From TrEMBL:
Residues 1-32 are annotated as: Disordered. This is D-isomer specific 2-hydroxyacid dehydrogenase NAD-binding domain-containing protein. It comes from Kwoniella dendrophila CBS 6074. Residues 149-321 form the D-isomer specific 2-hydroxyacid dehydrogenase NAD-binding domain. SUPFAM superfamilies: Formate/glycerate dehydrogenase catalytic domain-like (SSF52283), NAD(P)-binding Rossmann-fold domains (SSF51735). GO terms for molecular function: glyoxylate reductase (NADPH) activity; hydroxypyruvate reductase [NAD(P)H] activity; NAD binding. PROSITE patterns: D_2_HYDROXYACID_DH_1. Residues 1-29 have a biased composition (Low complexity). PANTHER family: 2-HYDROXYACID DEHYDROGENASE C1773.17C-RELATED, 2-HYDROXYACID DEHYDROGENASE-RELATED. Belongs to the D-isomer specific 2-hydroxyacid dehydrogenase family. It holds the Pfam family 2-Hacid_dh_C. One of its GO terms (cellular component) is cytosol. Keywords: NAD, Oxidoreductase. The lineage of its organism: Eukaryota, Fungi, Dikarya, Basidiomycota, Agaricomycotina.
Length: 369
């Protein structure tokens, strides 16, 4: 969820300013970069230190980080880039906005965050300072898709109600299962995660995959059918949510959209919790309109709707689809690699706001350090 913080006019370069132009920073011949955290524990750590002067900050929360960034910039800056290295066991600022990152502007030309999503990053403010924002989607995307496949297969087989049955001493319950070979599986959001989910399902024999995105995907396999949202709701036996959280997708699954779905549909969510109106999902589960659900994300996480907690037809996963305890090195390696590419070429690997920068009249990609 992007912050609504407005840009400070003192930190905005004019649109004609190249976003790669910097004043001299120090006597060092290497450009300076700032890391939230220390090392990614990948081969990229030493490469970054060969090409840049690396400064680090401890992993603390938003309020604690504000004075640390300000002090670091005043004593050691300016910095051409800022990267966040994430570990599930540590604090991490809940939002990236002007209040946190303001002291880095306008000299910082790249901000790199861990993970594919950036709904908690104020990309508009970053763009207004003439800087790029890059995510690190590849590794977390692959692992999230793997976790999604696990949830899809388990919920189609009814593993959670069978587990409850065994634990209650009833042995085997009469749980309806769905066959992924023949069931129609609808995927909403065919980005990197949704594409990998569809690819994995195809590899294990799923024969009927349909999807909806803002437009048909040029990388979709010919056997995957593009549908309108209403068409997907009408056809799918299982609906998998892998879409980003946007103005259009917030509350996408609600009473009216659920009514358009098949009776006994299964819903799986590995996108963002706010995509689903949980009150409406609970009502649909209790009525049987939705047969089962598997959720890795929640509307007000870490709080979980009590109606979901008590329902044996819901598989609950605490935002761990990508297995975050072992995800750190590969994901953080992507953050560091983005920084290396900026220093070496003037462009990161995975920028997300180049169109906005171009529309605002900023230049980018011209290495000048």
């Amino acid at each position: 969820m992007s912050s609504s913080s407005s840009a400070n006019t003192s930190s905005q370069p004019s649109p004609s300013t190249s976003i790669s132009t910097l004043p001299p920073t120090s006597s060092s011949s290497k450009p300076k970069v700032l890391l939230f955290g220390d090392r990614s524990e990948t081969k990229f750590d030493d490469i970054l230190r060969d090409v840049a002067e690396v400064h680090t900050l401890p992993r603390v929360g938003y309020a604690e980080m504000i004075p640390l960034i300000k002090d670091k910039v005043e004593r050691e800056g300016p910095f051409i880039a800022f990267g966040g290295l994430f570990l599930i066991t540590d604090n991490f600022p809940g939002k990236w906005d002007e209040g946190l990152l303001g002291p880095l502007a306008p000299h910082c030309k790249l901000y790199v965050g861990p993970g594919a999503g950036y709904d908690k990053v104020d990309v508009d403010w970053i763009t207004n300072t003439g800087a790029m924002y890059a995510n690190s989607p590849t590794q977390v995307g692959k692992r999230t898709a793997d976790g999604a496949l696990m949830l899809i297969l388990s919920v189609m087989r009814g593993l959670t109600p069978q587990d409850h049955s065994v634990r209650s001493g009833k042995w085997r319950s009469p749980v309806k299962t769905l066959d992924w070979h023949t069931s129609t599986i609808g995927i909403i959001g065919l980005g990197s995660i949704g594409t990998r989910v569809a690819t994995l399902l195809t590899a294990i024999g799923a024969e009927s995959i349909i999807y909806h995105s803002r437009r048909p995907s040029p990388t979709a396999q010919p056997s995957w059918g593009y549908r309108s949202l209403d068409g997907l709701y009408n056809e799918a036996d299982v609906i998998v949510l892998t879409c980003p959280l946007t103005v259009d997708t917030r509350g996408l699954i609600h009473k009216e959209s659920i009514e358009k779905m098949k009776d006994g549909v299964i819903i799986v969510n590995v996108s963002r919790g706010e995509v689903v109106k949980e009150d409406d999902l609970v009502n649909a589960l209790e009525s049987g309109k939705v047969m089962r659900a598997a959720l890795d994300v929640f509307e007000k996480e870490p709080l979980v709707h009590p109606g979901l907690l008590k329902n044996p037809n819901v598989t609950l996963s605490p935002h761990v689809a990508p297995a975050p305890d072992s995800m750190g090195p590969p994901m953080n390696g992507e953050v560091v690699e983005n920084l290396i590419k900026l220093v070496e070429t003037g462009m990161p690997l995975t920028p997300v706001n180049l169109t906005q920068l171009k529309d605002a009249g900023f230049e980018y990609g011209n290495k000048s350090w």
